[in-house]
Amino acid sequence: TRSVAAVSYVDNKVCLWDTALQRLRTTLPHPDGVVRSSWAGDSEHHLVTCCLDGVVRVWDVDQNEIIAEVTGHHDQLLDMKISENLVVTADDSGVVKVFRIS
Hints:
Blueprint: E1 4-9, E2 13-18, E3 23-29, E4 34-39, E5 46-51, E6 56-60, E7 65-70, E8 77-83, E9 86-91, E10 96-100
Antiparallel strand pairs: 1-2, 2-3, 4-5, 5-6, 6-7, 8-9, 9-10
């Protein structure tokens, strides 16, 4: 089981919680509100975030750094779903995009 829980906040951050110790591990800052976060597949090391600034970010949570950014939306992102190595996003104008992550 995963020992880290990711919680998204619209006040520009994702908090990673150590579920075994029941305490905050780290905070990942974002330039705008985060509406969804999801682990990339079975990985405990890569977290994908969907933000109001229209950008999808892939984080290496061990290093607390962004390893990829995916742009292409011109409106606020409202939702995201990950299936294997595909990320599906939807924005406020109704545009849906599919991105491949590795």
